[in-house]
Amino acid sequence: MSSKLPMNTAENLKSKLPAFAPLATCMVGFGWFMLLVLPDRQFTGLGYVAFLLVAAGGIGFSTLSVAFLFHRSSFPKETTGEMATGFILVFLFTAILFIPIIDTLVPWFLKTEVHAGGKPGILIAVSRFILKIITLGRNSAFNTDTTDEGEIFMGTFLGVALLEELTKVAPAAYLAYKATSKDQSMRSLVLAVAIASGFGFGVGEAFVCYSPWSGMTDFSGNVLRWFLLVPLHGTWSAISAAFVWNNVRSMQRAKTNWGILGYMVASVCLSAGLHSAHNTFAGRSFFWGITITIGTLWMLKVHALNGQASLAFNGPRALPQENSPIEFNIGAENPRDSFKQITALCFALVVVSGIFTSSTKSLSQRPPSYGQRELHRVPCSECYGAGRILGPLLGPDMKPLICPVCKGKRYELVP
Fold first, then answer.
1. CB of 178 closer than 8 Å to CB of 64
2. Strand partners, 45
3. How far apart are CA 368 and CA 364, in angstroms?
4. Computed from CA positions of residues 355, 360, 362, 368, in that sequence, does the dihedral angle turn out positive or negative?
5. In whole angstroms, what is the distance from residue 307 CA to residue 303 CA?
6. Residue 75 has what DSSP assignment?
7. Which of 224, 241, 252, 273 lies closest to 90, judged by CA?
8. What is the gyration radius of the CA atoms in the chain, in angstroms?
9. What tens digit of pLDDT does each residue of 112-158 get?
10. Structure pTM?
11. 410 in the Ramachandran plot: left (φ > 0), alpha (ψ -120 to 50) or beta?
12. Which helix (H) or strand (E) holds 73?
């Protein structure tokens, strides 16, 4: 037995790298590499086609990375359906409800006077307090005049990251909470659904807020989002899901829904912290961006992957017959060859989409905008409560979005 142990350990160490490297390469290597080598150009002409090619490459590359991550793992029979459901639910919620609620209904609710007593009044007061904190946080996170990094970090944490991480982990948390089987295959399924849900949020956010038709015409910035930030959303969700899984029994013993929500919030605090750190520091320094991304991957490995090491790297264990386990495999004898082919294909899609962007001028060589100013989505002081919400930054040639209350009559240009 002693002679076999070193061999098995060596095999484990040797087989961990091929399973984990693709996701790391996707987020750390490929995403940052594309940002560095691509020319800084604008989407013009066939920009929509170029954007869709970039998006298709990013989704394909991220999906393949997840397949490698769970290579040779066993899952319950409904794995594919559960992952697709998590992706679609979070994508639709993000695109149709999440962003409109934050940008439109929250300001409307804060300025609307509602008087009620008893439990409804308490609920309304608590909701107002929470929404005001979120609003102030978003203002600190998105206000380009804010220079204090601590304020930006806390604003991002309270106004952006917690909401997004709760949204992404919800399908996986529900699956974990309702799971009757606590074996390893079920845990792998929860993590896979969390990653799929994170992709759903990242894709929904990118299509609505970070695309040529939303005002983001920076080609290299869109490539970075699809090949780095969409996978990162899935990674943060997997870290949250691992914490949720570990606290399921405590959640089930909670006497109230507030207790369950408390465990959920605690479970997403770590990933929300990583999310906030990335938003605060990654854009300021390439070094900090790489460091935070590597730290995120390390947290994924420690909290999400180590618990399934015996399954992912040594092959499936014998599971109870009623679980109907299936192998989640990418269908290639040599995974590295398949990974190289997909990487080359995605690189080709990005290059072709770059050709479709007809403007080859660097953004730094563009003529300065009117009065050296940029257009911001400036909140109406009357409609949005003394400017507590600051919308997304728009390009220098874009018109501000229309206020849903005053129809844009009080918008103004600011430096």
1. no
2. 357
3. 9
4. negative
5. 7
6. E
7. 241
8. 23
9. 776 666 667 777 777 777 777 877 777 777 776 777 888 889 888 98
10. 0.77
11. alpha
12. strand 73-75
